[in-house]
Amino acid sequence: MIEALQFEFMRNALFAGFFASLICGVIGTFVVVNRLVFLGGGIAHASYGGIGVAFFFGIPYIVGTLGFSLLAAIVMTAVVLKAKNRADTFIGVLWAVGMAIGIILLDLTPGYNVNLMSFLFGSILAVPGSDIWWMLGLSIITIAATGYFYRDMLAISYDDEFASLRGVPVNLLYFLFIGLIAVSIVIIIRVVGLILVIALLTIPPFIAEKYARSLLMMMVLATLFAMIFNLTGLWLAYTFNLTSGATIILVATAGFFISMAVDFLLPGKFSIRQD
User: Fold this and answer.
1) pLDDT per residue over 52-71, tens digit each?
2) What is the pTM of this model?
3) CB-side neighbour CA atoms (13 Å) of 161
4) CB–CB of 227/253 below 8 Å?
5) Distance separating alpha carbons of residues 123 and 105, to the nearest angstrom
6) Number of neighbours of residue 4 by Cβ within 10 angstroms
7) HSE of 252 in the Cβ direction (CA atoms, 13 Å)?
8) Which residue in 177, 175, 176, 198 sits closest to 188, CA to CA?
9) Which residues contact 211 (CB under 8 A, 6 or more apart)?
10) Which of 9-23, 173-187, 188-202, 208-222 has the highest average model confidence (pLDDT)?
């Protein structure tokens, strides 16, 4: 694989995988701990509307997808905070509406010839250099915001009522946190696609949780696992000419079942985070 680094597309793929791994480790940890997998899936699929908007109006893909994902995230967060008992229904509706808008706008786009498979199932080997800079900027913003509000997010994750009594702006931070999930999804879509994005966002943190003594340690381990899955999947896809996104997810899934087998064979040997 070393010789492949002479190609620009392979170097871009490695950078994209690195940024996606960072996001999976940090934001994915909060998604798993707060049990927001369904909401994350709703944002991921609704973001397809942003892809349709981008191509219909001729704006950069990442700008259209980011704007649409943030809008969907704000609406979903408002619903979750105001009507928790009906949140799953509204998320499911927005999930479908976003995809429908994307499909219709792509149908109406004159001369449309983009390979939809690259957005549905990812194409890390086709990430252009311009997207790498976007991913770098969004990753820096996401990591910086998470670091600045880490203590408050930690308090909200385990007891939002107690956090509110301490003066933490729970609702505001919840909007911020869901917004960061939307930004993360836009970054990871380029690696594994919107259909598979939630798997890469949750599998590494889920495995890391078994071995971590703190939330910070869980983030670090999840990032390492995500890097291993991305690099291994990328190498297999390049070597055997496979679809990169699906290959990365299958590698991550293999890691998931290996961790489950370890749990079964060595029960009670691992610590749970205490942060």
Assistant:
1) 898 888 888 788 888 888 99
2) 0.81
3) 0
4) no
5) 22
6) 16
7) 32
8) 198
9) 221, 270, 271
10) 208-222
What would the pLDDT profile of 227-274 be if each residue is shown by its tens digit?
999 899 888 988 898 888 888 889 999 999 999 898 888 776 655 544
For residues 91 and 37, the answer to whether their CB atoms sit within 8 Å is: no
| Structure confidence by residue, pLDDT tens digits, 14-29 | 888 888 888 888 888 8
Encode the chain in three state secondary structure: CHHHHHCHHHHHHHHHHHHHHHHHHHHHHHHHHCCCHHHHHHHHHHCHHHHHHHHHHCCCHHHHHHHHHHHHHHHHHHHHHHCHHHHHHHHHHHHHHHHHHHHHHHHHCCCCCCCCHHHHCCCHHHCCHHHHHHHHHHHHHHHHHHHHCHHHHHHHHHCHHHHHHCCCCHHHHHHHHHHHHHHHHHHHHHHHCCCCHHHHHHHHHHHHHCCCCCHHHHHHHHHHHHHHHHHHHHHHHHHHCCCHHHHHHHHHHHHHHHHHHHHHHCCCCCCCCCC
Q: Is the Cβ–Cβ distance between 149 and 173 less than 8 Å?
A: yes
The residue with tokens 């299958």 is 250
Task: Write b or e for each residue in 20-39: b if 16 or more Cβ atoms lie within 10 A of its Cβ, otherwise e.
Answer: bbbbbbbbbbbbbbbebbeb
Q: How far apart are CA 219 and CA 120, in angstroms?
A: 27
Q: Tell me the residue type at 226.
A: A
Question: What are the pLDDT digits (tens) for 147-181?
Answer: 898 888 888 887 878 888 878 888 888 888 888 88
The stretch 81-98 carries a mean pLDDT of 83
